[in-house]
């Protein structure tokens, strides 16, 4: 990420990125010219939520929390307030450090990829029906489910969560079939 003169190539991110702590902020700011709001882990206060909601109105918000249970809980708390918030996900396998799992421990490319593949969620319509979802045989096939999570950068979860996120990201059955063709299914 350096140009010919050896200066850091800063990509400016318009949205403000919500992270869990100082080390996450340091990691993001090493990679991008970006502002962050820290939740201090699960200690997410009403004031911080108000700030996130306010900033969302003008600049937009991207949630980039750790790929673990507390990270999911923080994500859900923010989504309750801002259903159409943008989300970036780093896979668990890319975020494992020596002692803990998290954004600060993640591979730099994984963070860059997560932010460059940000998905905008909107709840307007159903892009895939439950019947279509079932017909894709995702429920009984964990490998296929994980592949779809990865291909569409939707984080991680069970089949029901995947169904919800596919709809939130307006992904259709056709989109899934198309993407799965490029993915060699083991």
From TrEMBL:
The EC number(s) this enzyme carries: 3.1.26.8
Catalytic activity: Endonucleolytic cleavage of RNA, removing 21 and 42 nucleotides, respectively, from the 5'- and 3'-termini of a 5S-rRNA precursor
InterPro entries, sorted: RNase_M5, RNase_M5_C, TOPRIM_dom, TOPRIM_RNase_M5-like
Chief place of localization: cytoplasm
GO MF entries: ribonuclease M5 activity
Superkingdom, taxonomy of origin: Bacteria
Keywords: Cytoplasm, Endonuclease, Hydrolase, Magnesium, Metal-binding, Nuclease, Ribosome biogenesis, RNA-binding, rRNA processing, rRNA-binding
All residue ranges annotated as the Toprim domain in the record: 14-97
Root EC class: hydrolase
Intracellular or extracellular location(s): Cytoplasm
A Pfam family per the record: DUF4093
HAMAP family per the UniProt record, alphabetical: RNase_M5
Family under the similarity heading: Belongs to the ribonuclease M5 family.
Function: Required for correct processing of both the 5' and 3' ends of 5S rRNA precursor. Cleaves both sides of a double-stranded region yielding mature 5S rRNA in one step.
Name listed for the protein in its UniProt record: Ribonuclease M5
């Amino acid at each position: 990420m350096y140009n010919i003169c050896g200066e850091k190539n800063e990509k400016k991110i318009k949205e403000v990125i919500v992270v869990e702590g100082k080390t996450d902020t340091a990691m993001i700011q090493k990679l991008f010219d970006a502002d962050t709001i820290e939740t201090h882990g699960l200690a997410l206060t009403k004031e911080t939520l108000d700030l996130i909601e306010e900033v969302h109105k003008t600049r937009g918000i991207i949630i980039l929390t750790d790929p673990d249970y507390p990270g999911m809980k923080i994500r859900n708390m923010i989504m309750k307030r801002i259903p159409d918030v943008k989300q970036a996900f780093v896979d668990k396998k890319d975020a494992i450090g020596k002692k803990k799992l998290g954004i600060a421990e993640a591979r730099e490319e994984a963070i860059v990829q997560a932010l460059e593949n940000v998905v905008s969620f909107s709840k307007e319509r159903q892009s895939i029906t439950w019947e279509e979802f079932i017909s894709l045989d995702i429920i009984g096939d964990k490998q296929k489910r994980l592949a779809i999570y990865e291909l569409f950068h939707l984080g991680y979860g069970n089949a029901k969560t995947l169904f919800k996120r596919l709809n939130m990201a307006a992904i259709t059955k056709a989109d899934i079939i198309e993407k799965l063709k490029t993915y060699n299914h083991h």
